[in-house]
Amino acid sequence: MPLLFGTAEFNEKEHLTIGGCDTAVLAEKYGTPLFVYDVAHIRQRARGFKQTFNSLGVKNKVIYAGKAFCCIAMYKLLEEEGLGCDVVSAGEIYTAIKGGMSPDNIEFHGNNKTKEELVYAVEQGVGTIIIDNFYEIDLLSEILKGKDKKQKVMFRITPGVDAQTHDYILTGQVDSKFGFDVNSGKATEALEKILADEHLILQGAHCHIGSQIFSAEGFLAAVEKMMLILNEWKNQFDYTVNILNMGGGFGVKYTESDDPLEPEVFVKAIVNAVKAQCELLDYSFPEIWIEPGRSIIAEAGTTIYTIGSQKVIPDVRHYISVDGGMGDNIRPALYDAKYDGFLANRISTEKPEEVRIVGKYCESGDVLIKEIDLPPVEAGDLFAITSTGAYGYSMANNYNRNVKPAVVFVENGQDKLVIRRETYEDLIALDCE
Ligand code: LLP
């Protein structure tokens, strides 16, 4: 059985439908590869996080990590759902504002924000800048002094937690390029420096322990570590945070063997851990912010490809090529990420055999699915890869001068083009003679 998410199902024509839209029709209309996003699923995920906080009576902000996937329509959707956004470049700030995101709901991350980017953020009224290092404290302070402005900030702390999970991207451990390290005392030094700066209004502390995390344990360890240091700072400097930002990283399902917790479970675990620590340490309960990216958008996205050539090497392997690959999904090549896929234009009862799904890029590493059982397929069949919504389009590239695919949002039987497919003219638009 294919792994179907959200509103995905097969219709009477045996075509995959998402959001009530026939993907074979969408493929015809927009071409393939095509990213199809199930808007109802995005909304459900966004609400899942928000409503859990609200039902627990906890002041919160759910800040979508735009790096997972963003475009103007996505920011509009986030605004509708009452989410903020986390950006990591001036380009993301620009897109968010163009998408109607209120600047106050934007938080700006990054380990090497340039002076131009910080100036831009301040001028645009970005709500929170998350300071990552000493260089940035000085740079931002200098910019604010020049403009005679004040800026709400938080600072990023690496709590020294190794989030033990399956295939994730660690960031909270001591040896990380991000944030101020607690163990060496750098975080405390940063706190003193920020508090002493009249242009910086410190709102609280942030940490992000990694990505694609499947259990609550890493978050619980991080809460404990964070509350311990916050309590030290309360005793030493009489400083109490208004906001504790626990970052993102909540895991999602890519294949049958992935078993992530529901967003609600993560939120409850974090809230309960903060409550317990606050009671233990007699610390006043802070507002809690989180920054989910993947867990809001991954499962909502499906990529539709058209099957082309096949190569059978007897007793070795059966290759099936699709019309996309590492240009629209670099994750298998980069992280050895696993995905699930299936025929989207018919249901076959023929005997499946093990095949490898590869892309059209001029590189042997351009593999989308290393091993999958599929019934016999033909050129022109549609192949769907599920759970491609996060870090697929956002990491897309023009390798071999292939154009980037279109992206459509589907909901209640309506499809809406939100990013058009690139053209050959787009490919040479920046070239100078
Ligand atoms: N907050 C911060 C500070 C982050 O660095 C990240 C991700 C997030 C939130 C969102 O994490 P999420 O909830 O999406 O896991 N390209 C990689 C993922 C890199 C994640 C970078 N930071 C991938 O394709 O798996």
Automatic annotation (TrEMBL):
The active site is at residue 362. Substrate binds at residues 294, 331, 335, 363, 391. Residues 35-389 form the Orn/DAP/Arg decarboxylase 2 C-terminal domain. Keywords: Amino-acid biosynthesis, Decarboxylase, Lyase, Lysine biosynthesis, Pyridoxal phosphate. GO terms for biological process: lysine biosynthetic process via diaminopimelate. Pathway: Amino-acid biosynthesis; L-lysine biosynthesis via DAP pathway; L-lysine from DL-2,6-diaminopimelate: step 1/1. Residues 40-298 form the Orn/DAP/Arg decarboxylase 2 N-terminal domain. The modification N6-(pyridoxal phosphate)lysine is found at residue 67. It comes from the Bacteria. Its cofactor is pyridoxal 5'-phosphate. Its EC number is 4.1.1.20. The keyword Transmembrane does not apply. SUPFAM superfamilies: Alanine racemase C-terminal domain-like, PLP-binding barrel. Specifically catalyzes the decarboxylation of meso-diaminopimelate (meso-DAP) to L-lysine. Belongs to the Orn/Lys/Arg decarboxylase class-II family. LysA subfamily. This is Diaminopimelate decarboxylase. It comes from Enterococcus quebecensis. The gene is lysA.
